[in-house]
Design brief:
10 helices, 313 residues, eight-stranded mixed beta sheet, alpha/beta, 8 strands
Length: 313
């Protein structure tokens, strides 16, 4: 068994305990509506507000079948080169524009880039590939609306969507300039690595992952579906420069390593960093935990560097 008392420091334990006080470990045993209520309340409790230099507008992307709500974050003089398309986490069943509102506002403030957060459809009301389809629609909208380069960024489930979009748009004239994936779930091998070592990690367990996958797919087996599991792809050539930042105490961490290795083997640019002693969902700890604060700075720097079309790793 992993000794988390040795890996996790006191600040991070305090964050874990605070999270569990709002969002108990057995939350997946509740109804979906109850889970959303609990999650949304937790996100409100952690909400850190907007930086003074950021404004936001909530609007929607029109599609033939349904509108996709988005929130656009701006500074007074946005950087002209790039815009960031952000996909939020939440296991494909939780979250929305409000759950990651302050994260997107801070990302906008600290990079200077315009950030567009996408409120993709959630399961079980909308099974896979609904979220992926909305992510592709959002990318196509951005490619049509903006002359700026498009950078993809997302955490957890949102990281999965970023990678899926990157794989699907390799032949696009406006393919993404880069992607920053924060503790993403990419469909890795659950028989090894962090899936075994951290199967019972604080804040996210393999049981949780199985639950989310089952809800997202409606229980249907989808082995080899690249829009569900980007690591199932046989071809990792011509993907955008990729930075993956994962948490050590997280069953998903090995996905970052595996994805990095596949891109590098295909002679692409990819960098993976595993943050010591951190847990899944630590973006919410960026103002209270030193390790999380430092990691968020690295995330901001990665978005800034890739957004300028550079590679320093």
């Amino acid at each position: 068994m992993t000794d988390y008392n040795k890996l996790i420091d006191a600040e991070t334990w305090a964050f874990i305990e605070r999270t569990n006080s709002y969002y108990p470990p057995d939350t997946i045993d509740y109804t979906i509506d109850q889970q959303r209520e609990i999650y949304d309340r937790m996100c409100r409790e952690f909400f850190a507000g907007y930086p003074d230099n950021v404004t936001a507008e909530t609007t929607a992307i029109a599609t033939p079948s349904h509108p996709i709500p988005i929130r656009i974050y701006l500074t007074p003089a946005p950087e002209a080169a790039t815009m960031v398309l952000y996909f939020h986490g939440g296991g494909f069943i939780l979250g929305g524009l409000d759950s990651h509102d302050d994260v997107c506002a801070e990302l906008c403030s600290r990079t200077g880039f315009e950030v567009v957060s996408v409120d993709y459809r959630l399961a079980p009301e909308h099974l896979h590939p609904a979220a992926f389809d909305d992510a592709i629609s959002a990318f196509e909208w951005a490619a049509t609306t903006y002359k700026r380069a498009i950078l993809l960024c997302g955490d957890s489930a949102g990281g999965n969507l970023c990678a899926s979009v990157s794989h699907a748009t390799r032949g696009h004239a406006r393919r993404p300039i880069g992607q920053v994936l924060i503790y993403p779930g990419l469909g890795g091998d659950r028989s090894q690595g962090s899936y075994v070592a951290h199967a019972e990690a604080p804040l996210l367990t393999v049981r949780d992952l199985d639950f989310y996958t089952n809800i997202r797919t409606g229980g249907e087996g989808r082995t080899g579906d690249l829009t569900l599991s980007p690591l199932a792809d046989a071809d990792f050539a011509n993907l955008p420069p990729t930075v993956l930042i994962t948490a050590q105490c997280d069953p998903l961490s090995s996905d970052g390593e595996a994805y990095r290795d596949r891109i590098v083997a295909a002679e692409g640019h990819a960098y993976w960093l595993e943050e010591p002693g951190l847990v899944h969902g630590y973006l919410r700890a960026r103002h209270t935990v030193g390790r999380a604060r430092s990691s968020f700075t690295r995330i901001v720097d990665a978005v800034s560097v890739l957004g300028r079309g550079e590679w320093i790793w």
